[in-house]
Design a protein that fits this description.
The protein is mostly helical and about 210 residues long. Helices cover about 65% and strands about 0% of the residues.
Length: about 210
């Protein structure tokens, strides 16, 4: 008896380098934040994240997929906490007028981009069990998000990191999905959280711009 089509793994595994670049981008953006938006010992935090990034690469290449999945969730949770904390510091700094307008605007823009990268990683990491579990199927037929390509009757399409990055970008700009709908409750809650964070940053940018004018 042959293996059912949906259980046959795809011939080519999903490349992990886009997600790795996004993680390195988040680390780089954190390094670029001014001191008043970080929690001291910036290079200690960055060193921990770089070690964790190396562990993600090693665990993936060695086939320890459960460890890779759990470590990826932990790293993204840590990055989310850092981002939310930095936004809180940014809000606190606005009434004090101690920082230059240019520094505040650059910081808000960096945090807005960070928001996109972090939530793209959340969607990519959690949807349908994560990239490894999705790769075990011949095509993506169910998950937390309804992609337009899922309506195709034939083919081996499966979402990759860029698809989730597109979803996260639309959620941060339009505050709603474009062509991809959230189906599960956790996905809806994550998208609501991302939209709220993005809206907060945009309001801060507008308020500061009006104050400058």
């Amino acid at each position: 008896m042959g293996t059912p089509e949906l259980l046959q793994p795809r011939q080519e595994a999903e490349p992990r380098w886009p997600a790795l670049l996004a993680l390195l981008g988040v680390i780089g953006l954190y390094v670029g934040l001014p001191d008043f938006l970080t929690f001291g010992h910036t290079w200690l935090i960055v060193s921990i994240l770089l070690v964790a990034t190396a562990a993600l690469v090693v665990s993936n290449r060695s086939g320890r997929h459960d460890l890779n999945h759990n470590l990826g969730i932990a790293v993204n949770g840590f990055n989310t906490a850092l981002m939310v904390g930095s936004i809180g510091l940014l809000i606190r700094s606005l009434p004090e007028h101690k920082e230059s307008p240019a520094a505040l605007l650059r910081s808000a823009a960096a945090l807005w981009i960070t928001n996109i990268l972090i939530f793209a990683a959340w969607y990519w990491r959690l949807d349908a069990g994560g990239p490894y579990q999705r790769g075990l199927r011949s095509h993506h037929h169910e998950g937390a998000f309804l992609f337009p390509q899922m309506g195709m009757k034939h083919g081996t399409w499966s979402p990759q990191f860029v698809d989730y990055l597109f979803l996260a970008f639309n959620t941060s700009t339009a505050l709603s999905p474009a062509d991809t709908q959230a189906l599960s409750r956790w996905a809806k809650l994550l998208m609501m959280t991302q939209s709220l964070i993005s809206l907060t940053i945009i309001v801060l940018l507008v308020a500061r711009s009006v104050n400058i004018m």
